[in-house]
Amino acid sequence: MRRWWLAALLGQAACGGEGPVVAAAGVAAEGAPAGVAAPTGDRPRAASWPEAGAELRALAPLPSPGRRLRIIIDAGHGAPGNVGNTSVRCELEQDFTRRVQDEVVARLARAPELEVRAGRPDAALVDYGARIAAFDGWPADAVVSLHSDARAGEGVELHPVTGCWSVRGAAGFSVLFSDEGSPGLKAARERLARAVAGALTEAGFPPYARGYSEALYGAVTDGVFVDRHAKGKRIRMLRGTHVPTVIVETHQAFDPDEAERWTEPGTLDAFAAALRRAVVAATTNPE
Prior knowledge:
By secondary structure, the chain is α/β, with parallel strands linked by helices. It contains seven helices and eleven strands. It is globular.
């Protein structure tokens, strides 16, 4: 998502080329220890996300819920007049989300307990009203809309290789939901948001720790936020659906290291496995 403080800058960025290449990190089996970086002095230091060497875990799936769950993975943005941010790699957010959507759908399609669809299956722009109608009309048991975030961090500068905006720090994911609607729908949305955040954290993805302005998003628990924009300005994709829907801000789009990690197959493997576990937990185990 685009944030106000970078909106003007992003429209002026001269983007081109590829981002910095960082050695890929693998995905450990469930329960494996984090990767270890090169020693500092006499004492080794464990690598932390998004450093290369910080390992992610591919979580084991939960038992089958007894029926196939209908899941939509939606590529955020990609609507007329709404391309989203431009990352440090000079990749439009709508292109990033479609790339990740396709990779995640391909992985989840192999899960026998899930029936999976893509919210934006090709390059065509799809307005939000049409997407919401498709979500509700199927109907989906859960919708996860993918985004990347534009956040303040340790300074703003043009990346020396790509020429696009670079911001260090403020890494991690966040999960957004709406508490508008019927009590049952609100509870299902929050249950899905908490399950996704919990699974991502268990897999090794850190939640975004700094949080947002309370006027925009209220903090619920680590990595989970409820839409608090002024009435009339709240996120349509969250409040407009009649099926449980969340947005996952996958990472800080302007952090070179984190943007690079999101090009790695291992990151996509761990992310897809976490979503697989979360949607089953949220859909079949209501509290």
